[in-house]
Give the backbone structure.
Amino acid sequence: MKERIQLCLRNLARHGWRTRIILLIALFGAFLTFVSENLLEDVSLKQSDMFGRSFAGHFRILNRNIETKNTFGFYHYEPEEMLEPDEIASVKQYLAGLPEVSGSQERIVFSGLLYGADDAEKGFQGIAMDMGAYNQELRDLYYAKGSEVQRGEAASCAASWAEYGKNKIVDVGQRYVFLLPNREGEFVDRFVTVKGGIDYRTMPRDVMGMGSMFFDLDGFRSLVGYSKPLASEVVGFLRDARTASKVLPRIDAWLKQSHPRLKVVSWREYAPIFAEIVLGFDVMMRAVEAILIAICVLLVIKLTTFSIIERYSEIGTMRALGFSRADIAFQFSLEGFLIIAAGTLAGFLLGSAVIGFFHVTGIRNSLTFFAWVIGNGFTPGFHEDKVVAVGLIFLAVAVLAPLLPALQGSRLSILKTLEKR
Amino acid sequence: MNGITIKGLSKDYHLGKTVVRALKGVDLDIKSGSFACVAGPSGSGKTTLLNMIGLIDTPSGGSVRIAGEDIQTLSEQSRTRYRSRTLGFIFQSFNLLPVLDVFENIHLPLILHRELSREEKEGRVMELVRAVGLEEHIRHKPFELSGGQRQRVAIARALVTHPLIVLADEPTANLDSATGTEVLDLMERINAERGTTFIFSSHDPGIMKRAARVIRLHDGEVEAA
């Protein structure tokens, strides 16, 4: 074996430019695949972390009759279709026992007028947000009776949270109430459409630009005159959004048995655009990787074929000296394998250095567009399963890519190869 | 019989609609330990005959028996093994591997001989390096050698597996006459010392004179043997 490897190395050295090209292709391909697979995993986890608590990774348990497709959570229901307190308690208890579920909350879906002059008198304490970490240009958020919130105005926004912190009450209609614009982007005083009931402390500040948000659910119930603590739904949060397809059927099976009038709905149903964003990102990255690997394989095949054509006479000589077809195929495959393996190893080392560097520094993002994907940034790390998977892919490339031309070379007639000079 | 017995050997090449009959029913007996020259003008079938004996080409008819065994009936695996164990080849253009030095080129066929230890292999190579007088060039690559030196390397490579038969297709054709004579001297000496059968082709009358037996081919038929 040592002699064969030695022969391979000599031949690789002879075809210097070709060897370097294959080495660089393998290096580049392995590096990008290694880095992107590890980063992709971190991005996926980040998305699960972000969307899992806001959009992508959460699911809803609600009345089976309610149509939720493409509603983005703003669906219509009748009061009798709300969850009863015992149903809420039972569902929350069940979800607490699932390891894939990080938490759950009941909530009321509503759209309507808030902050009426008599809200406080009716017991609704309003909402408050922690703007201490606010650092984005979030133009759809307005400060009451003021102008648009600009980047760097965290201090002024934080005042509302400080005020709330004093006695956990925000004076409705007063200085520290935040308002959202309507669909036309106009600032409409005292009118807001929000999804109520959720404790936005579960939502990372990366997404909303705020640390937490308080919604007075009990106060709202009192305001609208519910006699019992009903809820439109129970929202569950997945630790990893990618586990939805495994966890949700289990929950649905349990609901059919324990609460037949309830169903579980994935975010994919009522907000498919988010599923498409996540899927599109994954597909895009995987397509880039697949193209890279395909280019790598095709170039290796092409360059190995050139090597074989150049060395026809050598193949004939070796066959005449007693080397079998398998020996010839093995020899050329080994050459291809060694060079791709070396390139892959170099690509892995370079990729490890890059991931290691970003592991220390973290990846920061200040672009609003990418905030939908990675928020303010994340800290990449190494993922054993991804490292093994990329390693196996390139091992397969190293074994299979040179094999086809090597087999073709080994099947050449001795006579014809000896005739080629 | 340990020699080569050829009966009714024929070879047809099909070039489009034309059939070229390179060998037309050749019958030959070549004894073990012979120093035989296959002679004849270009196109007489010399190389084709050597290719048939060397299992490089397959005949259209007839048989070649070496030590009583019909080598044409062997499987692909057995043919490969036969080339490795029984036959040695010397080519007109030397056919050395350019990336290997003298020692490595001679050593090349021994890669397949796993039954030999590293010391045994090195011993065989060094013995032949001395026999062909290339001790001083042992680490030289083929491009650093003269034509005669390259052919001596090729002879050593053909002998390193201790074959019964060495086939040499016009081994002196690319050499000047003095170097050609040197190469032939070497082949003759090894034939005498080791009893290895040498069958070489040539159309040079000077070379033919050196052979113990001359097999004359003309238009694919044996004219005189």
Remarks:
- The interface with chain A takes residues 51, 54, 56-57, 76-77, 80-81, 83-85, 87, 89, 91, 93, 95, 97-100, 104, 107-109, 111-112, 157, 161 of chain B (CB under 8 Å).
- Chain B has seven helices and ten strands.
- The radius of gyration of chain B is 17 Å.
